Amino acid sequence: MKSVPPRLLALGAAALCLVIALAAALAVDSRLDRHWVMRGITLVLAFGCAAVLADDRGRRFRRIIGLVGVLMFGFVVPVTSTTWATPPEVDFALAVADDAKATATKDARGAVTVDDVRAATQARGGAVGTPKTDRSPEVRGADTFPLIVRPKPSQGRPWACVSFTHGLDAKIRPC
Question: What is the pLDDT of residue 1?
């Protein structure tokens, strides 16, 4: 039985890592500006592990380490970072951003206002701004962008920040 040449194995692993990285990056909503640095670093590490596989003079242990590295940095990390990209509070903020944009478009306005986001949040049963407590009686994130959006009025952290750039383009991030 003939084994796969190391250079061909490394090239195939690098190509597969690139395809998985691109698919995972495109699977995340473009309004989320998270994970780009981590995705780039893991792709570089996956390519480095594929380069370790290309060395045909290496010992078996070195090839095993290269395969495990390709598996971790080329498959496990991109897939898990994609599935964990939208926690419930971010999903809520994405829905609020869609509703606020629809309201502004329906009213023939070129920009989403704070009132649009506030109305969309309240229509979905959430709240805007930090909760008012004894410890921090001042409400933050309720008057200007980025707005703090909470799925439940009584919920403390975690919450998400919603801002609009260029009028109708939403950016959502944890805050």
Answer: 46
User: What is the pLDDT at residue 94?
Assistant: 87
Question: Coil, strand or helix: which one is 108?
Answer: coil
pLDDT along the chain (175 residues), means of 10: 72 85 77 70 85 75 82 85 77 89 89 90 87 76 82 81 83 79
52 membership: H or E segment, kind and range:
helix 36-54
58/67 Cα distance (integer angstroms): 13
At position 133, the amino acid (one-letter code) is T
**Could you tell me what percentage of the chain is helix, strand and coil, using 3-state DSSP and rounding each to the nearest 5?**
55, 10, 35
Closest CA to 161 of 30, 24, 31, 39: 31
**Among 75, 72, 68, which Cα is nearest to 20's?**
75
Region label for 144, one of left (φ > 0), alpha (ψ between -120 and 50) or beta (otherwise): beta
Helix (H) or strand (E) holding 43: helix 36-54
* Cis, peptide link before residue 158, omega less than 30° from 0: yes
